[in-house]
Amino acid sequence: MSSTADLRGVARGGALNLVGAGVTTLVTLGTTLAIARALSKTGAGTFFAATSLFLLVESLVVSGATTGLVYFIARGRAVGRFADVRRSLRVSFVPVLVASVIVAASTPLWAPAFAQVLSGTPTSTGTGLVLLMCALPLAATSDMALAATTGYRTMRPTVFVERIGRPLLQLILVLAVLPRHDPVALALAWVAPYFISFIVAVVWLRRMVEKDDTRQAAGEPSNTGERLTLRTFWTYTAPRGVASVAQTAMQRLDIVLVGVLADAKAAALYTVATRFLVVGQLLAAAIATSVQPRLAGWFALGDSAAVRRHYQVATGWVVLIAWPFYLACAWLAPYWLELFGRGYNQATGVVVVLAGSMLLATGCGMVSVVLVMAGRTFDNLLNTVVALVVNIGLDVLLIPHLGIMGAAIGWAAAITANNLMPLAQVGFRLHMHPFGRATLLAGGVSAVCLGLVPLLTRLIIGPSLAGVLSGCVIGSALWLLAAVRYRNVLELQAFRPGRPVGAVAQP
Asked: Cα(456)–Cα(463) distance, rounded to whole angstroms?
């Protein structure tokens, strides 16, 4: 296989994902901004907590099957076992669909009690929760179908449906109903786009499966090998499923815990302050999602050298993109938080703490993805569960005393644990690390341009918006010049349009 061709394939998929992540970023911030400014802090916090609960429950019913689909479809196609593709779809979709229907049907039993604790208004909030959960089977199926298309090494369905279409439609519908200040209408507007994404994702996946069937009918050899079974799929997927739930819990449970242990106003402050973190994670995931199916193929073929090289280069790309973003968010936090309404800049400390933790996390690269694609899902499960225990434990201890800063400390500690543990495992067991020339150069350039330069301008001009903003603008220009100057070391030539040169084989 041509290494250059593969790197360009990762770059093209990553670039498309970056476009999608950019759209998702703007739309997500727009939706959060609109809700925060249109509703009271109590109303906004209640809505954010309810939607976070929905996403957490969805992760629970999917149980990591999305990762299993990427893994088995990519591996099956890499070694010529095309029958495994259809089997992986059958053994994954049915259990997830049954679980999601059961959870959705049980929502009326617990929604009023949860609404009472969260907002004190069980009727409207509880009805909104029921509406959200009614869409759970469609949301889970949609995400499963998109994950399956990723196993075919294409990013277009994920980008156009999940990154662009659904968030944009959510924003449009939310803006349409916000003037009514009706929690039920707001919940319906937010969840309705899942119906559209369900249809589009399933149709797109069906066409891709039919194309594979056509290739087989045309006589392309198929390696029968060992038949993929329900047990094989879920033995791999179950640990990842628990880990996926724990991962989503770390991202969403904080908001729910802040709402319960503090109040809905604090939940609104915390949600707004942590939206930048989700944006940064989308940027990193844009590269990781592109390389994930290729890692599965390379591990199946035993090509450790390809895994090692692309892990280091991709980490360099992630650091080059994510570090300037997190540093700029930390410097400008007191000012951009005010855009959401008066008093939101009280959460500046939350931004600074979490930005620091994300510098470390992105510096480790897609370390958990490497671990999972190597088949070590139990290691990944252990890491994520430990991180979740750290997160919940510190939240319960600190939120009653420190409020949203306690939640930030708990999440930052969990992020640190969830990256350093797999980093050690990948190093000792797979003999790999992310710290290649590209990673070290990208980190140094980003730290100087968006860390040191804004500090100097702040000292010279003063602690004002003009001082910090000037530093970020100058630093960004220097960052761009450095990226162009050292493009060969960073291997940014992979992003150039055009047909790759060299033999192309499918891992």
From this structure: 11
Task: Give the sign of the dihedral formed by CA 341, CA 411, CA 71, CA 287.
Answer: positive
Phi/psi of residue 154, nearest 5 degrees? -130, 140
- In a domain, residue 506? The reply is no
Q: Closest Cα to residue 394, out of 416, 412, 371?
A: 412
Q: Is residue 356 domain-resident?
A: yes
Q: Which pLDDT value is given to residue 324?
A: 94
Tokens 């994902």, residue located: 17
Three-state secondary structure call for residue 396 = helix
205 contacts 149 by C-beta, under 8 angstroms:
yes
Question: With bands split at pLDDT 50, 70 and 90, how would you rate the model's confidence at 69?
Answer: confident
467 lies in some domain: no
pLDDT digits 0-9 by tens, 375-419: 787 888 889 889 989 999 999 999 988 888 999 999 999 999 999
Token pair, residue 403, equals 């409020």
Q: For residue 505, what pLDDT band results from cuts at 50, 70 and 90?
A: very low
**pTM of the complete model:** 0.68
Burial 154-188 (b: 16+ CB within 10 A, else e): bbebbbbbbbbbbbbbbbebbeebbeeeebbbbbb
Q: Decide if pLDDT at 89 tops 70.
A: yes
CA angle 291, 292, 298 (to 5 degrees): 85
Write out the two tokens for 121.
């208004």
Structure tokens at 78: 């890499």
Q: State whether residue 453 is helix, strand or coil.
A: helix
- The pair of structure tokens assigned to 211 is 């194309």
> What does DSSP assign to residue 436?
S
| Contact criterion met (CB below 8 Å) for 307 and 299 | yes
pLDDT digits (tens, 9 = 90+) for 449-479: 999 999 999 898 888 888 899 999 999 999 9
Per the listing, tokens 């088995």 go with 72
Angle of helix 348-363 versus helix 264-301 axis, rounded to 10: 10
Tokens for 170, please give them: 């959510």
**Opening angle at CA 143, ends 140 and 145, nearest 5:** 105
Is 496 domain-assigned? no
Which tokens go with 202?
A: 């399933």
Please report, as a single letter, which amino acid is at residue 419. Answer: N
Distance (Å, rounded) from C-alpha 197 to C-alpha 141? 9
Would you tell me how many other CB atoms lie within 10 Å of the CB of residue 130? 17
Write out the residue range of the structural domain in which residue 352 sits: 3-222+229-435
Work out the mean pLDDT of the chain and round it to a whole number.
82
> Which residue is associated with the tokens 């439609």?
169
Cα 494 from Cα 492, distance rounded (Å): 5
Residue 464 DSSP symbol: S
pLDDT value, residue 141: 93
Q: Could you tell me the maximum CA-CA distance found in the chain, to the nearest angstrom? A: 71
Of 206, 240, 204, 212, residue with least CA distance to 78: 212
Per-residue tokens: 5: 């061709």
What is the domain count for the chain?
Answer: 1
